[in-house]
Specification:
This protein has about 280 residues and is of the alpha/beta class. It has helices at about 5-15, 40-45, 50-55, 55-60, 65-70, 70-85, 90-100, 115-120, 190-205, 225-240, 265-275, and strands at about 20-25, 105-110, 130, 135-140, 150, 155-160, 165, 175-180, 215-220, 240-245, 255-260. The strands form three sheets. Strands 3-2-1-9-10-11 form a six-stranded parallel β-sheet, sandwiched between helices. A three-stranded antiparallel β-sheet has the order 5-4-8, covered by helices on one side. It has a two-stranded antiparallel ribbon with strand order 6-7. Its EC number is 2.3.1.286.
C-alpha cells in the first residue's frame, strides 16, 4: 500500500471509531526537538560529556548515581527536566486532541515517556498513564515515605561536567530526593502514582468492550517493547485497529496499518484528509 493510501486508511479508521487510545514511545518527541537516545551515538550526540566519560544512556540513567554522587545523578536528570519544561510539544499532539473533540471520542494515552508533554499539550492528567513515571515528580531516595510529590525546583546544571549545583531534598527526611522514574536496574522506584494511572486505564478499557477502538501508536520501538505490547493487547482483546507510526520499525500485521514516517508529518497528513 502506498503512503497516501495508508494515510487515507488511517483517517478512515479514526473517523469511524468511537474511542481512541494513543500509545507513545520516545519517537514522538523527536519532532518537538527532543534528542534521540537511540544507541550510544544518538545519546552522545545529545550529551557529549558522557562520551568523554564512556557512559551509555543505560549507565547514565542508573539510580545508583543518586546514592554515590547525587550531584552527578541530578546532572543528567536536572538537565532533562529543564529541557522538557522549555520545549513545546509539536503540533501533532494538538491535532489528536482536535480529533477527539471533532469525533466525540472517549480516549486514553499510554506512554513510556517521562517528559509530561501530553499533559503540557492539554491532555488531562486523569487520561494519561505514564508507565515509567514522570520526571516532574519526586520521591525519597531511601523511600522513607511512600509520598510522591511534584517537582517545582529549578535544577542548575554545569553542562561541561554534567553536575548539578543544587538538587531536591526529601520533604520528610530532608536527604536526597530522586525523580519518580523507573530507571535501569531500579529496585527503589515507588510505582504508586503509575499504579493509580494504570487502574484508571483498566477502568477505561472495561468500558470499551462494545466500542469501536482506534489505537494510534507513535514512536514505539522494539528495544523496550512495552508500548507495542500494549497496542497489540488492545488489538487482540478488544479488536482495536492499530495505526503504527514509526520511521524505522513500522511492521504490523494486517489489517492494522504501519506507516514508515515521523509523527508530525504523518499526523498532519491524516488531519488534512480528515478535514478535506
Amino acid at each position: 500500500m502506498e503512503y497516501k493510501d495508508k494515510i487515507k486508511a488511517a483517517a478512515d479508521i479514526i473517523k469511524n471509531s468511537e474511542s481512541l487510545v494513543v500509545t507513545a514511545g520516545a519517537g514522538i518527541g523527536v519532532d518537538s526537538g527532543l534528542p534521540d537516545f537511540r544507541g550510544n551515538q544518538g545519546f552522545w550526540k545529545a550529551y557529549p560529556p558522557y562520551e568523554r566519560l564512556g557512559l551509555s544512556f543505560i549507565e547514565a540513567a542508573n539510580p545508583a548515581h543518586f546514592e554515590r554522587d547525587p550531584s552527578f545523578g541530578w546532572g543528567f536528570y536536572g538537565h532533562r527536566l529543564e529541557m522538557y519544561r522549555n520545549i513545546t510539544p509539536h503540533k501533532g499532539f494538538y491535532l489528536m486532541l482536535d480529533w477527539i473533540k471533532q469525533f466525540g471520542m472517549d480516549y486514553f494515552v499510554v506512554t513510556s515517556n517521562v517528559d509530561g508533554h501530553f499533559q503540557k499539550a492539554g491532555f488531562p492528567e486523569d487520561k494519561v498513564y505514564e508507565i515509567h513515571g514522570s520526571i516532574h515528580y519526586l520521591q525519597c531516595l531511601n523511600a522513607c515515605t511512600s509520598n510522591i510529590w511534584e517537582n517545582k525546583e529549578k535544577i542548575d546544571v554545569d553542562t561541561e561536567s554534567m553536575r548539578a549545583r543544587n538538587f531536591p531534598k526529601c520533604i520528610n527526611c530532608h536527604t536526597v530526593a530522586r525523580p519518580n522514574i523507573l530507571m535501569f536496574g531500579d529496585f527503589s522506584w515507588l510505582p504508586y502514582r503509575s499504579h493509580e494511572q494504570s487502574n484508571r486505564f483498566d477502568d477505561f478499557l472495561d468500558c470499551q468492550k462494545k466500542s469501536k477502538i482506534a489505537v494510534i501508536e507513535i514512536g514505539a520501538g522494539t528495544a523496550i517493547p512495552s508500548i507495542r505490547h500494549t497496542s497489540e493487547r488492545i488489538h487482540r482483546n478488544l479488536n482495536a485497529e492499530i495505526i503504527r507510526i514509526n520511521p524505522r520499525e513500522p511492521e504490523v500485521k494486517r489489517p492494522n496499518i504501519g506507516i514508515a514516517e515521523g509523527s508530525l508529518k504523518t499526523l498532519s497528513d491524516i488531519d488534512e484528509v480528515l478535514n478535506d
